[in-house]
Specification:
The structure is a homodimer of 321-residue chains. Chain A is mostly helical and 321 residues long. Chain A has helices at 3-22, 28-37, 44-56, 65-86, 97-100, 103-122, 128-155, 163-188, 193-220, 223-226, 232-236, 241-248, 263-275, 278-296, 304-318, and strands spanning 90-91, 94-95. Chains A, B: This is Polyprenyl synthetase family protein.
């Protein structure tokens, strides 16, 4: 199966399951919790959970479906809270929860999703020992995501962030949840420790590549295409890898740090970055993580799902603007 | 052992364990997470976890200590987020997390504690099936606490809240976490379903009594004694049981809904409430829940720890201002 087909089918299945669970909730808090969860998305983390499980044990993805949902719910909880902190007003083409409702409701909506993620893990059909191990990994991952988000915020008021700090930060903020998705899928399907470790590392490095690409998308894609405010990183002067490498290359982006940035100004910035070789340099770093991630898969049983996991890594850095 | 001695010894033990876990953390986010956790408190929820476990299996409280900490950590996470929503500046005599740091850090600090609670459950020495059941109960409880907090906020802009809605709200906001504390202590020590149900109901009704008393303390205790701003409920016009019963009795409290309330004005309000029989009526409702709670304990093995659990219920409505 080609990746595109798989992801489409998987997203439809996850959308349906989420709709069954959260589509008919009553009360404003539950509606606020369901809002972003039901606003679509590529459902990449559930796809990773399902594929990792299938690699380890054919037919296991049906049993561990609640865990796949748990990883999407966890991701959504972090987005709801991040949007408050970052002051973002649009996500997946919808108003963010704190804009549609209010900040207290958005804090609680995120907290509700947080709990529901752990509840979903507990409802998976798997050995209790595998479920407890999954709870432990998911909990540690949530701590690391929070640390990554906090570092991301502190980077905004620093001007000396280097590329190693950036990679470590996005590793926590994005890499760890892909790592947990793959590892939890494998664990619940009964993988060995060595397999778990390989799946975890695959997810971690794929996630870093994903986040580097995400920063490119923020810079290059139109608001209509990305469903988010365009170039918010540039406007806010965020310390993305592009910004760090731009600084190293002597490209001054400070003039673009303003609220109302026109598309022309954004194009001008991209042109400067291209000329200075910054875009190429950042792409090369992403490619290193892609290679590292794909190398991890070699110890796993060769099968269609392993190929799809490998294709996902490629997709992470080729998905369009 | 008398309750006071037990609670003192338990609080010292829990303080020490929390200090060992969170006392030497580095980084601002981890410090913000540890701040309120290390600011003392009566450690009542861990006490309940430990007692429930001992009732079911003598000597089990040592094994399930991480779960006792998990319940305190959960409680602390809810306080950190609630303080943001309620705009409170002082808690346990310390500045609240969002005041000492900032709102984004406080959101993340609560999120970190949230994950650590589940991680602690996974580290308990108990059967995996008991741990997964505990995860499930804790997760559902967190959803209910959020719902209770959201209802509490919506009550502020309503003037038709009745006492049944209030009891249901505090049952979610406070009762359920005591219920979970008792049930999880019992489950991890190997209790039967019937025993779990009794422990859960004991905690639920004790917690309701606790919250009614907490509202009294907010009204009557000095800031120095409670470690919180005095009479914040009165100032904010919160729909406490006192306020609801005052309205039913024709006592107008709207004049006290202002930022700078003097101690004389607070005493005047209390005097009006006493004269109208409101205080007595609310105390009677609390006593009904105390009786219900204590009745639940009868099916459990008779022992010193069962007596202490019963004494805790009494303590909940007698603790001073």
């Amino acid at each position: 199966m080609i990746l595109e087909e798989f992801l489409k089918k998987n997203a439809e299945e996850i959308d349906m399951e989420l709709y069954n669970l959260f589509g008919a909730v009553s009360g404003e808090l539950n509606k606020a919790s369901a809002h972003l969860l039901l606003a679509g998305g590529k459902r990449l983390r559930p796809a990773v959970v399902m594929l990792a499980a299938e690699i380890i044990r054919k037919g296991s993805s049906r049993d561990i479906l609640p865990a796949a949902l748990a990883l999407e719910v966890t991701h959504t909880f972090t987005l709801v809270h991040d949007d408050i902190m970052d002051g973002d007003s649009v996500r997946r083409g919808e108003p963010t929860v704190h804009c549609k409702w209010d900040e207290p409701t958005a804090i609680l909506a995120g907290d509700v999703l947080y709990a529901e993620a752990f509840e979903l893990i507990s409802k998976t059909i798997a050995h209790d020992s595998a479920k407890i191990k999954s709870v432990e990994i998911l909990a540690r991952t949530c701590v690391e995501i929070c640390q990554g988000q906090h570092e991301d915020m502190t980077f905004e008021v620093r001007d000396d962030v280097d590329s190693y700090e950036y990679i470590d930060m996005v590793g926590k903020k994005t890499g760890k949840l892909y790592a947990a998705s793959a590892a939890i899928g494998g664990i619940l399907a009964g993988c060995s420790l060595k397999q778990m470790s390989a799946l975890y590392d695959w997810g971690y490095h794929s996630g870093i590549a994903f986040q580097i690409q995400d920063d490119f998308i923020d810079l290059m894609a139109s608001s209509e295409k990305s469903g988010k405010d365009r170039a918010s990183d540039l406007r806010e002067g965020k310390q993305t890898l592009v910004a760090i490498k731009a600084k190293e290359a002597g490209v001054d982006l400070s003039g673009y740090r303003k609220e109302n940035l026109t598309d022309e100004e954004i194009e001008e910035a991209i042109s400067k970055l291209n000329k200075a070789g910054v875009i190429k340099e950042v792409e090369d770093i992403a490619m290193e993580h892609v290679k590292h991630a794909k190398d991890m898969l070699i110890i796993l049983p060769e099968c269609e799902e392993r190929k799809l996991l490998s294709d996902i890594t490629d997709y992470f850095i080729t998905r369009g603007f």
